[in-house]
Amino acid sequence: MLLLLLLLQLLLLLQLLILLLLLLLLLLLLLLLLLQLLLLLLLRCYCCCCCYCCCCYCCCCCCYCRYFYLS
Description:
two-stranded antiparallel ribbon; 2 strands; rod-shaped; mainly alpha; about 70% helix
């Protein structure tokens, strides 16, 4: 009987540990998602108005766009 109670307690502890690990994993996934959204906001690209090329951090000049891509 005592052995059975000990086993049940061990099982409960194991369940709690698994639950904590799952919560940690979920938190990590949420953090990665937030990081990805932040990177997406920081690296979003604007289209240039003279040549319709899309590039990051430059607008309205094709030569500058090409230079930006080549460098």
